[in-house]
Amino acid sequence: MSFRVSVAVTFIGCLLILAGVSAAWAQADYVDDDPRMCLVCHGPGTPLAADDIMHGAHGVVGNADSPFATGQLGCQSCHGPSSEHLGMVDGVRPLPGVVFDQRQPAAERDAVCLSCHEDETGHYWVGSAHEFADLSCTGCHTLHPLADAMLSFQQVNEQCTDCHQRQRAEILQASSHPLRSGQMTCTDCHAPHGGPGPAELTAFTLNEQCLDCHTEKRGPFLWEHAPVAEDCSSCHTPHGSPHRGLMAARTPFLCQQCHLAAFHPSNLESGAGVPPQGASNNILGRDCTSCHTQVHGSNHPSGSGLTR
Amino acid sequence: MPDRLVINALAMLVTTLTAAACLAQGAGQAGGQAANPVAGTVSASLGHLNDDAYQYGNQAGVNEQGAAPWLALNLRYRPAPDSGDTAYWRIEGERLGLETPRFFLEVGQQGSQRLRVDFREIPRYRFDDARTPLQGAGTAVFTLPQNWQATGATTAGMSNLQESLHEVNLWQKRRSLELDYRRTLGPQWALDVDFRRDTVQGTRTLAGATGATGGNVRALLLPGPLDYETHSAGLSLAYLGDAMRWTLGYHGSFFSNGDRSVLWPTPFGAHPQWGAGVGHPDGLNRMALEPDNQAHQLRASGSYTITRRTRLYLDAVLGRQSQDEQFLPYTVNSQLAVTAALPRESLNARVNTSRLDLRLSSRPLSRLNLSTRIGYRDRDNRTPIAAYQRVRGDAVDQQAFADARLNRPYSLAEARASLEATWRFSSRLRLEAGYEFTDTDRDYSEVETTREHGVRLGLRSTQLDTLALALSYQHQRRRTDDYIGNRPYIQTHMPGTIDAEDFENHPLLRKYYLSERDRDQLRLHADWYPLSQLSLGAALAWNRDDYPTGYFGLNKSQVLSATFDVSYTPAEDFSVSAFYSRDRYRNDQSGRSFRGSVPADAFNPGRNWQVSATDHFETVGLNLEREQLQPRLGDWQASGSVDVSLQLAHSRSRGEIATEAGPALTNAPLPDLGTRLNTATMAARYHLSAQSSLRFALERELYRSSDFAFDNVEPDTLANVLLFGQDSPRYKATWVSLSYRYQY
């Protein structure tokens, strides 16, 4: 009860503390003849060519929401008021109103993208791991070239592992999901714009995520294995392992971290059970699962030991 | 495989039609009209694998010696900028014609509707050298050779085993087709409908045990069937207002298994503790396979902008998982005595799930970001409990009612709360802090309640133009109420049949996921940009879990990880990158070996043992790309340019398992475990013209592994388990390919 009271107090307190502060947008001047004026310097063949954007999704004028549709502001729909960018100040050309690199705070860059794409990136962006880390939309997406690597199943994993380097190493392990070849992509499980589950999973819980593909393990079974019902990561690791089945540790030792009953579950399994010293049922072949094959659960009325 | 041919034919048809359409469109617009709105590439390839390499097919899509053709395409259509049209499409296909194809299509009208189609095949080739005497691999009914002889209850008594063994492949293939349609219903409304079908087929490893106790159980590995099918569908409606947004949706998933059970004959001769007729030649065994099941969810999510900088988010989910497949009988062996009927015809299993999350995100001050969450999730298992008088291992007569087992429908409820804050000292320096609390209640468990508190502190800095730093530390402390080790043991037995002092697991065992735990995590990430073309990065991670001393089970685990990377891009057409990663995972655990028949064992410290298992991973990678080279040989110069690339990866792991034992136990060192993967790809692309090019690629991949559980272990090495006798996977593959690519 005390927990619920404290949570409620915390929540209400935050509501009160966080009540509204607003700021006005600065007014500035727009270039009239956008994009024609912009293409003078950023047209085809120029060193800073940006015209490809007009041949991609953002250039579809038939969509009234497109930056280049009638009534929109062209390049300045995203880059903001940029009339000063046309001139020079002390021999230096001022930047456009908004630039999409480190010179502009990530939140300001993202606000531009989200003004149109909030319904797609959704619900979970604010407070997500990437938003919290100041990784802006353009940290992953490229807008001006025709192809955006984040939209290609062949390239998206490279994009992700460019930063998530530990995962890049893990997917080279002997047991892994098929991420190396692009048959699976990081975004099959993770939502880069934020998700409802832990680690930005697209499902609400880790188990729901795993069971989305491994539906046969969903049960509910007559004889459940308690950690299976609670948390797949009790035994498995998601990205890579040297042990079969993405096990987090070598069996039978992993099993013995929770099973220490009389006789074989509590035996010390050592080199004494490996040829030429010996041959133990509990460490050769599939060790524990040489008998307890239905380790995720059994629906056989005689299968309480998960052997049926 | 007929469906392989159908899929390949369809893939090639789609590719050909697409390419033809693109060519026609390009030709029609070549005469001074607007630029071709179709862009992308289509390529046709022919490859050759030098030798059979079974597991190589997992990634490459080919594992048999010989030649193989495939197609790839990556095309997109956008209307001309000034056309007013909004129709578009995008196609991406890879390895079409090989065993690992993937095809993606998106077609729609921008701003109003779109349809996505995603098809892929994912094979998993495990072993091609497994050996078994069983006939009927991959089916649900196995038989032994007619001349099978088993004169004792061990593999030594299988007198014609060697001549009966034949090789089987262990593999699976997942095929997945997903359709996702989204339509904008108005300025603020959207509808989303999705459908997915997954099938998994193949031959997998199962284990078939016969017997009732650890002492008289005999088992063999079975090449079991795999025939799963899952259909899932979803429907959601979204309202996208300015201040308020919400989505209501339904998601359903329906799993069906093509095989209900597996039936196999006992290959061992009769054991004296088994019932009559259980051993060879009369004994049969039956295992239940995964039952058909369903899962349904109703989902609601929404957000409301309270003020310009404060937003409230809500997620609510109600779900149900159910399963009601008819039970198999207690045993398939009619010669065993079964007097009591099943308590139910089927389980009528039902798990209700619910989840509620509230999140408030705000920026009350220009320098302060806050995010607070409270959440609750519940897994309420409503499966009925009954007493099951088992026939253990299809080997002995049915248990008496007093020895029956009660099923334990596990339920769990979890409440969470967290607060995260970021304070910006400047645009280049910020401090992050967070607190979280989790309260978990379980039933049928050694521990009824666990509570975990966690604090996190982090710093991010880009104070220097050329250096970005991120440092964070996290501490979590999990505490529990009383650990009652025999509670599940008592709860699965008939009331009154187990004394309060009886136990199954040793009383000093503490299961790691239920135990008290202190967890510390430290992370450091640095990126240095000494030159505009050069970047260097380093990441260090340290994680340590400590469990209470004086108990058995997992005592301590530690992870240490270091990654370094470098990227050098001296020109737009020249880049080099490399990385090195090293990880060490270490688990320390302990136990006490005890025999139920010698009660004093459980209290004899001389039977204690400790295991320290350490896994070392090392990975190195190099990637080099150079474009627009102009080949020249003496006076001759190629008319086209050449792009070259080189990719190298080396990954290896070494598992060390150190065992220590008290004086009453026998101990000997275990061999190390190891895996090693080397892969190198060299490629050169020669541009014949602005549109067409030829690519030659050479890939060499070597994989080897050593595992004492498989190496030099024959099917009959174990007396009581008939194994497959396969070796640890190893292969060498050289894959040469030539591709022609046309670019639109």
Structural description of this entry:
The complex is a heterodimer of chains A (about 300) and B (about 750). Chain A has about 300 residues and is mainly α. Helices cover about 25% and strands about 0% of the residues of chain A. Chain A has helices at about 1-15, 35-40, 75-80, 105-120, 130, 155-165, 165-170, 205-215, 225-230, 255. Chain A is elongated. The model of chain A is unreliable at about 15-25 (pLDDT under 50). Chain B has four helices and 33 strands. Helices cover about 5% and strands about 60% of the residues of chain B. In chain B, β22 (about 515-530) and β23 (about 535-545) form a beta hairpin. In chain B, about 35% of the residues are buried. Chain B has a 26-stranded antiparallel beta barrel. Chain B has a two-stranded antiparallel sheet with strand order 10-11. Chain B has helices at about 1-30, 55-60, 160-165, 485-490; strands at about 40-50, 65-75, 85-95, 100-110, 115-130, 165-185, 190-210, 220-240, 245-255, 260-265, 285-290, 295-305, 310-325, 350-365, 370-380, 385-390, 405, 410-425, 430-440, 450-465, 465-480, 515-530, 535-545, 555-570, 575-590, 610-630, 630-635, 635, 640-660, 675-685, 690-705, 720, 730-744. Chain B is mainly beta and about 750 residues long. Residues about 25-35 of chain B have low confidence and may be disordered. At the A-B interface, α1, α7, α8 and α9 of A face α2, β3, β5, β7 and β8 of B.
